[in-house]
Amino acid sequence: MSDFTALPDLAVRSNRAAVVAASDESFEERENLIHPWEPKFSPETFGTKGQEYDGWETRRRRNEPGNDWAIIRLGMPGRIRGVVIDTAWFKGNYPPFASVQACRASGYPTVAELDSAEWVEVVEKSPLTGDAKHEFPVDSEGVFTHVRLTMFPDGGIARIRVHGDVVPDPALLIGVTVDLAALENGARTLACSNMFYSAPDNMLAPGLARNQSEGWETGRRRDDGNDWAVLALAAQGVPELIEIDTTNLVFNAPAEVRLRAIDLPDGAPVPPADDPAWFDLLPTTAVQPDTPHRIRLGAEFCRPATHARVDIYPDGGIARLRILGSLTAAGENTLTTRWS
């Protein structure tokens, strides 16, 4: 897979995306395009409209002008770095070509209002093959809120993945308490010791984890070390309350957790764990399985920070990590600059 696929998927349902419209969905509904799981297939599962597919499938066009399309509202606005168009299991009914356009629209526009938006082509009309993932790097610095997938002329597509850098609207974050560690606010995991079962960005995702796979979980350690993850906060802010949620981790929660933070200039490398510039938000503390731990920080821990480091002892998983606080003036300026 390309490097861009490690970035958050802005168009997945679990990150609050939605397919708001489609030209046709005669065989399979448009919402299948953004399911978080890999496409599934069971042979000879015939419904009243034929073989059932885990994807979006339109009727066969018969001498009709035009092409089929679907519009996706991104769950998190951002700069698109790459698109994956997956035709998994569509072998005789995939479209021969597809393209992707993107636009930026404020508020909550209707489909009619999106028709008059300024759409920019981010993936030109490109050939597709059946039952395959097609990766398209995107070279654009625009901030987008919607994408339009067009297939030429008809057929079936299992999934679309839109990977990129999250760029939140600062108007929704300035002057209020925010989750500085939220993926949807622009936070990201930069490094981790282990992600054998699931990726650390999962613990920054919106909503609650429904099962173990929707958090961060490491393999079992057989040495004297411990697992850890380092993340960039949404912008510089002052942490005030943290939540370490081990929900669903009944027998594989860590025994203890430590959370530290650091304040770094823009572009500065993140120092190693033994650098004295790291300061405690939460000293090493015992945690319970299957429990959301909410801890208000003392005044001595409430200092400006741009990055955080979570250490779990010795291994295990965290369903969600929340760092609630307020943006500094510098943090507000950073978010405003990214959005403009």
TrEMBL record:
MF term (GO), any: allantoicase activity
Gene3D superfamilies, alphabetized: Galactose-binding domain-like
Domain Allantoicase intervals: 17-166, 186-326
Keywords from the named record: Hydrolase, Purine metabolism
Known EC number: 3.5.3.4
Record keyword ATP-binding present: no
SUPFAM superfamilies named among the record's database cross-references: Galactose-binding domain-like (SSF49785)
Reaction(s) catalysed (UniProt annotation): allantoate + H2O = (S)-ureidoglycolate + urea
Pathway: Nitrogen metabolism; (S)-allantoin degradation; (S)-ureidoglycolate from allantoate (aminidohydrolase route): step 1/1
PANTHER family given in the database record: ALLANTOICASE, INACTIVE ALLANTOICASE-RELATED
HAMAP family: Allantoicase
Family of the protein in this entry: Belongs to the allantoicase family.
Name this protein carries in UniProt: Probable allantoicase
Organism in which the protein naturally occurs: Nocardia tengchongensis
Gene behind the chain: alc
